[in-house]
Write a structure and sequence with these properties.
This protein is mostly helical and about 160 residues long. It contains four helices and two strands; from the N terminus they run E-E-H-H-H-H. The chain has a two-stranded antiparallel sheet with strand order 1-2. Strand 1 and strand 2 form a beta hairpin. The longest helix is centred in the last third of the chain and has 42 residues. The protein is elongated.
Length: about 160
Amino acid sequence: AAAAPMAGALLIPFALPAGSVLPARAVLLPVRCHRVAPVVMDSSDDESEAERRARYEALGREEVVRQSGLDAGADDGGLMAEFNKRVESEGGATAFKAKIAVSDAKSTVTSTAAGAKRAGEEAVDAVSSLGDRLTEQQRKITTIVLGLIGFQIFIQILSSALR
């Protein structure tokens, strides 16, 4: 008995290569947005459970062999042995890891310092552009006020250093 078409399902036509045949039992399952996707079921009705299990086990064994081939290390021409020898000559794996950690810390500090330098340059640019917009009188007042603030900070640093 043929299955009744699903209500609201949209059948999507697709092309098969010449000479292709759909399996004996193909089921259309609904997917999102009321579309259907073909799902191929096992088409060998005359196959017994034992034959099917043996076929699946053979496929599983083939996959294990394939995976073990992927997991096996490729011939590197002695590069790994040379690398390990060099690591041992330079103090072992722990020293190697420490050198890497120091290098990482150095690059982090360098990038942070570069960011701080950029921020300082942007602040100087902002202040200089602000100075361009001030009148002569406003610039003189700003210079006096900032000079007094700087002098006050200098006196506080000096007095705390002499204690």
